[in-house]
Amino acid sequence: MSDYYGAPLGLSLRALLPGPLWSVARPAGPAPAAERLFVLTGNGVDSLLERERRFKRSPKRRAVYETVEALGGSAPVSHLVNQLRLPRNSLDALVQQGLARIERVPEMRDPFAGLSSPPPPSLTADQQAAVRGILATPVDMPVLLHGVTGSGKTLVYLHVLRHLVDSGKGAILLVPEIALTPQTVARVRGVFGDQVAVLHSGLSDGERADAWRALRRGERRVAVGPRSAVFAPVQQLGAIVVDEEHEPSYKQASAPRYHARDAAAMRAQLEGARLILGSATPSLETLDQAAQGRIVTFALPDRIGARPLPPVEVVDLRSTPRIPAAETGVIAWSEALDGAISGALERREQIILLLNRRGFATFVQCPACGNVPGCPQCAIALTVHQTPPALRCHYCGHEEPIPETCAMCGHVTQRLRGLGTQQLERFVGMRYPRARIARMDLDTTTSKWAHHHILDRVARGDVDILLGTQMIAKGLDFPNVTVVGVVDADTGLHFPDFRAGERTFQLVAQVAGRAGRGPRGGRVFVQTRAPEHHAIRAAAAHSVAQFAAAELPLRTPPQPPYPPRTGLVRFVIATDDHARTAELAEKVAAWLRRAARERLDGMLTVLGPAPCPLMRLKGKWRWHVLAKSTEPHVLGRVVRAWRAKAHRAVSVDRDPQSLL
Questions:
Q1: CA triplet 382, 388, 393: central angle to 5 degrees?
Q2: Residue 15 falls within a domain, yes or no?
């Protein structure tokens, strides 16, 4: 990993351990938890006569003794004191008399231990065929499970993994961070019970350390977690599953900047384990590998129960009838979506609304001079939040009060521009006053169990409308959801990034798949001002093939090549001084061009330098240089050569997932 990504060896080694176990001050990490066990010794009270003599003046002590005796002679102190309400002084007295002792036994801190774990349903014929096919595939051949939304990919993973675990193997199941909910863990526990260890950043240091130790000792056989779980110390590893393999969150933003999907492929190869990738909307890189025969594909073309995929209505906001602006403000709200929501509420059905932009408004603007308050550390506008009221930067965390007057000209009226989930929540509450509404975004899910509480309310039927960002687009299975609305499909479509269309297609297609999973069916409404865009049209058709056929030519010569048609390395230069950043970027580009001419036989194409789209971030001015080559070994030589002359202001990102 250090060699491939050009990261320092120390940082690469550090990625292998969870944070709690990587400490200079405490090399062993958090100490293992221990439970205090109250154990009877039986000394001198075997006979009834001796018992009468010992406890003649202390009937309470005798009652405590005989209670523990009835429990088998031992019990946790916490259970005796907290649940059975036994007096602690009586326990202490029995210890002092030599009739009992306190033992410390290791305890596994597992926050998911109390989850109910329903048994998995039976497999469909398609699922059974996929399980048989995967197990019959040579171990060294990666597998792609390409199933439409609602086809039951997770159930296939679990049956394959159960076969391996029953044969003495271990397994790793990677899921995107936002999909790592208690519901997901409960499904895995329904198959593997207490053999499951969960690893993710939302756990306490002690919980993560305990899970890691249990896996290393072989006490637990199945690791579940986000990208960092790819390094879990699972014994006798038999398979690694990468669910939703297309998710950009599998790529780490800081050094060593590894991609968990690719790290999983390398680890599986080294340990002789299976690699199983799964997605309803696979990445173009994975589709390209499959087309070349490097990955075997198994398809799940139908939903469970033969339910059809929901019809998708693309709503052209440029021409469609809309609710008057006097009623909606800045929100574009079509009559089609409005009517569908009202009808679903009357039928006591549930609705999901996606808007992939948090906050209340995109920015504040002075109507007199046009000034927009920006982050002093980043080259972006501050986002308006209403709960609590503030302007916030979503990149560095800077926060300041919402201004009452313009800082530039003193004008007393400031206008809110753009739309965020907070404003959508307020509008929906006013438009449908009887609806019970829940919002799910980064601002409402900061606490440990926030995801669980929100989704549990939806599952119980206590929420009529669930709205939020991309968090609600994946992994949710609520049969009573009959209407899905994409409020603004264009939020990420025009980003200055070659993956913008792919991300939009995946997001819209995934959230569309939340509808129609029950017997009542469902409908999807995609509001957009670019209905002719191939990403929107392919998502409406639920067609990965249609999207790939339109997108791949845009990344293939004579167009400027981009992955998967070429490999890519991004050099990002960031310093406190803009002029110094630009100068250093020129030097990096010159070094790359010289290397391409003199040592790489012209097999390297260099683009830039140029300012990054996010030119200033966290107080640093940012420029970047791109290096492209169709030969992986060429990019490897470039990365290794740069590591030898590494500069602290320059970061190297091989296979970047974003160019912002």
A1: 20
A2: no
pTM assigned to the model: 0.83
Task: Report the C-alpha gap between 232 and 257 in whole angstroms.
Answer: 18
Count how many domains the chain has: 4
Single out the residue in 524, 553, 582 at which a domain terminates: 553
- Do 210 and 356 lie in one domain? The reply is no
Q: Which domain holds residue 343?
A: 307-361+418-553
CATH number of the domain at 281, please. 3.40.50.300
DSSP 81: I
Label residue 25 by pLDDT band (50, 70, 90).
very low
Indicate if 322 and 177 belong to the same structural domain.
no
| N-term to C-term CA, the chain | 24
Decide: residue 382, CB within 10 A, 0-12 exposed, 13-18 middle, 19+ buried. Answer: buried
Q: Where are the beta strands (DSSP E) in 179-283?
A: 196-198, 222-225, 237-243, 274-279
Among 471, 472, 546, 468, residue whose Cα is nearest residue 505: 546
**pLDDT band (50, 70, 90) for residue 112:** low
Quick check: is 645 in a domain? yes
Q: Is residue 84 part of a domain?
A: yes
Instruction: Quote the CA–CA distance of 388 and 418 in Å, as a whole number.
Output: 18
Identify the three-state secondary structure at position 529. Answer: coil
- Residue pair 180/188 in contact by the 8 Å Cβ criterion: no
Rounded to whole angstroms, what are the CA distances from 169 to 128, 163, 237, 628?
21, 9, 6, 40
Question: In this structure, is residue 378 part of a structural domain?
Answer: no
Distances (CA, A) of 594 to 587, 588, 589, 637: 10, 10, 9, 14
Average pLDDT, the chain: 87
CB of 303 closer than 8 Å to CB of 151: yes
Q: Of 518, 553, 588, which one is at a domain's C-terminal end?
A: 553
Beta-bridged to residue 38, according to DSSP, are 75, 102
Q: Which residue bears the tokens 């929906």?
A: 428
